[in-house]
Amino acid sequence: MAGAPGAAGPASPEQPAPEQPPPGGLGNEQKCQLMLLRTLQTNPYVKLLLDAMKQSGCAVSRERHFSCEDCLGNVSGGFDASVSQIVLCQNNIRNQAHMNRVVTHELIHTFDHCRAHVDWFTNVRHLACSEIRAANLSGDCSLVNEIFRLRFGLKQHHQTCVRDRAILSILAVRNVSKEVAEKAVDEVFESCFNDHEPFGRIPHNKTYAKYAHRDFQNRHRYYSNI
Ligand SMILES: [Zn+2]
Question: Which of the 8 DSSP states describes residue 197?
């Protein structure tokens, strides 16, 4: 999801104070920070995106560009383009795998923000394109896809999942009708679904992501030798 602060996304300052941490355990914010650290250090999708951002002149720092907060509703995260910060919803991110997916999804928005002049706030097609890419490349649809492919052999399931998730993400951050969101997604779907940068492929699982990371590193090694 990519949205302005407060727009059904990241927490607003009027939120009640977070619960006290349970005795002997870690509070939500500490847990969130620890999971984030692990994601940044070990997840191949995230490592590739961090390298790509650095390569594009937008190096990401954990202290500057991430914020663990309590959020309204069941939102997991958001990208606040006005301050270039990823909000991680510490009250809704359930486990390490969930953290990995949220950070990957939001870093794809951050990558788009870095490489292109994305008009997040007034051009719904720009937002649609980035949501399609985030759903397609982050693994948001891959787990479900695997199960469906095994059970039903539906080749189109991945595309359908990407389209549906992109529409839902737009509706969560923009006050537009379902028809407007659907139209925007359909208009840009073909080109944005086929834009796999910086992965070079759809990374359906961690193994694909590791290969994509290796290829990315090699790609830039060759460039730097030219
Ligand atoms: Zn998104």
Answer: T
Asked, for residue 150, whether it belongs to a domain, the answer is yes
Note the pLDDT tens digit of each residue in 164-221.
Answer: 999 999 999 899 999 999 999 999 999 999 999 999 988 888 888 898 899 888 887 6
Q: Answer yes or no: is 166 within a domain.
A: yes
Average pLDDT value for residue range 92-109: 95
Q: Name the pTM for this structure.
A: 0.84
Residue-level pLDDT at 90: 96
Rounded to the nearest angstrom, the distance between the alpha carbon of 109 and the centre of ligand 1 is 7
Is residue 212 assigned to a domain?
A: no
Is 5 inside any structural domain?
Answer: no
Active site residues: 106
Q: What is the DSSP string of 114-137?
A: HHS---TTT-HHHHHHHHHHHHHH
Range of the domain at 161: 29-196
* Long-range contact set of residues 144-148: C-beta below 8 Å, sequence gap at least 24: 145/204, 146/204, 146/205
Q: Which residues surround ligand 1, an ion (CB under 5 A)?
A: 1-2, 131, 134, 169
Sheet holding 85-89, edge to edge: 66-69, 85-89, 77-80
Higher pLDDT, 224 or 129: 129
Looking at the structure of the chain, the number of domains it has is 1
C-alpha–C-alpha distance, residues 144 and 160, integer Å: 11
